Amino acid sequence: MKYIVILTDGAADTPVAELNGMTPFEAAKKPHIDALASKGEVGMVTTVPEGFPPGSDVANLAVFGYDPQKYYTGRSPLEAESIGVPLELTDTTFRANVVTLSDDENYEDKTMVDYSSDEITTEEAHKLIDAVNKELACDDYEFFGGTSYRHLLVWHNKENNFTLTPPHDISGRVIGEYLPKDKTLLNLMKKSYDILKDHPVNLDRIKRGLHPANSVWIWGNGTKPNLDTYAEKFGLSGTVISAVDLIKGIGQCAGLNVVEIDGATGTVNTNFDGKAKAAIDALKDGDDFVYIHLEAADEAGHRHEIDNKVKAIELIDEKIVAPVLEYLKNSGEDFNILLMPDHPTPLNIMTHTSDPVPYILYKSGDEVSSGVESYTEANAEKTGIVTERGYMLINKLLDRM
Description:
Blueprint: E1 2-8, H1 24-27, H2 31-38, E2 41-45, H3 56-64, H4 68-71, H5 76-83, E3 92-101, E4 112-114, H6 122-136, E5 141-147, E6 150-155, H7 183-196, H8 200-207, E7 215-222, H9 230-234, E8 238-241, H10 245-253, E9 257-259, H11 272-284, E10 289-294, H12 296-302, H13 306-331, E11 335-340, E12 357-363, H14 377-382, E13 386-387, H15 393-397
Parallel strand pairs: 1-10, 1-11, 2-13, 8-9, 8-10
Antiparallel strand pairs: 2-12, 3-4, 3-6, 3-7, 5-6, 11-12
Helix pairs in contact: 5-10, 6-7, 11-13, 12-13
């Protein structure tokens, strides 16, 4: 038996006026996903428990089968695991995005122009993080390079008692009221602007018509996680496929193999073909479980890119679901597929919500007539099937109920 999760990060949405009142799932052409929905269980699931931030960290932990109320210790420590940063139990970690701020004179008056600095390349971003680290690192804290705009700050021997704002929640807003109250963190952010605003990488980006990554934005604090491995928890071996350090970190903490894919960007231009091939290769090599994480719809939601959000869903259908499904059907082995977003990222607000999301649970050995011809938020809600505790859904996939 093979078990597959296809995680369409942030793909759930609300009706969009520019799509004639449809959601991206309703507007997208996705015949393979709809076929799975017609022969599987379709329902709604809550992935973010009440009182938790509606982030991909909390939601993906739940989809992996870990109760966030028991296992969640923050976002950044999972990313630290992914990029190989050793942590002590006394460390507090932070996400350190490189962002584009406006050029207003006072830091507090600047506007969040772009939380991803035009999806800066990892190579460019590492040069910027290295420059910040060279000037600001000390015995207490240091910066580490991650992927694209997503990086890491570790503060040693520091209690995790911060309330911080994700930069993608304040696109287009003046940053003053969202800045850290902690003077050290605020000082690091201000000094990073002085270091980065005229850095050669940014001067070159400006010449090319791209947003400069002119400041570090600190958020996503947490402490070292401690997850049961999949071998311990479920007796399974498996592989995680993602462009995002957070998801890779969860996979590593879960004792799963994490595959690096050339050209995997986390955007609509990611290497979908490479991800599908990696999934199929993992199954051929004997893995029981594969988790395919696809970030593109979430990024489009944050950037209010309506056409790209629809396109992301269509590409997932064509380039992920279709080839993986074809391989599984030809393999002669029974398989279960769980397809779902982790959380909504509605285009109208450009950030995450904790609302329930639609899911498909398809079992090749137990096809059912769901009465659902098209996989959408509204159709999933109409079935009346609801899973309140998202971390329990994995048990349905693995036939552990």
